[in-house]
Design goal:
alpha+beta; 5 helices; 5 strands; 5-stranded mixed beta sheet; about 180 residues; globular
């Protein structure tokens, strides 16, 4: 029987094996036998499916992220000037002024249909739809209730958007009162 290898011996044998392997010649790089270039024809339907690829969703999310950053910046500025304790309508008006200053496009108090089994019941009023990408709902409450998140999620679904911001201006730091919701 061979003597058990010790740490020094293991290192030595490993180095010798590496050296022996390096001395042997390599004939040709290994290739897969079926590898070859093929021309692919893409129909319009397939091209449309490709447009919905993860890459396009990533670029859409990048655009959404840029908009949400700007919206949050506007909200911080409004809160910095007005502080907390005012009515939602005041914050809505101030935020619209900040959106204008920032060059953001938006729809204020946008209307969404409230449907039940295909019948119109009335309308929902969303505080803002910014850049036709982000739902923004304004609150000025002591504490955010989970029903407010559900409300924003409903607006996101009805407006067929992906992201919504729930902003509570009645907090010491407005960043603590912001919830980003993604569908």
């Amino acid at each position: 029987m061979d003597e058990p290898l010790r740490h020094k011996d293991t290192e030595l044998k490993t180095i010798n094996n590496i050296t022996e392997t390096a001395d042997t010649e390599v004939d040709e790089p290994l290739r897969h036998e079926d590898t070859e270039l093929k021309t692919i024809n893409i129909t319009e339907t397939e091209a449309t499916k490709m447009d919905e690829s993860p890459r396009n969703k990533d670029t859409e999310l990048e655009a959404i992220n840029k908009v949400t950053e700007r919206v949050i910046g506007c909200a911080i500025e409004v809160h910095r000037v007005l502080r907390c304790g005012l009515f939602e309508a005041i914050y809505r008006s101030a935020l619209a002024i900040e959106f204008d200053s920032a060059g953001l496009t938006y729809r204020r108090e946008a209307r969404l249909p409230a449907l039940y089994k295909g019948r119109l019941l009335g309308q929902y009023y969303v505080d803002f739809i910014v850049a036709d990408l982000v739902i923004v709902e304004i609150k000025s409450v002591e504490k955010l209730n989970p029903i407010f998140e559900t409300q924003v999620l409903t607006y996101i679904r009805l407006a067929e958007k992906r992201v919504g911001l729930l902003i509570n201006f009645n907090s010491r730091l407005v960043r603590d009162g912001i919830k980003r919701l993604i569908v």
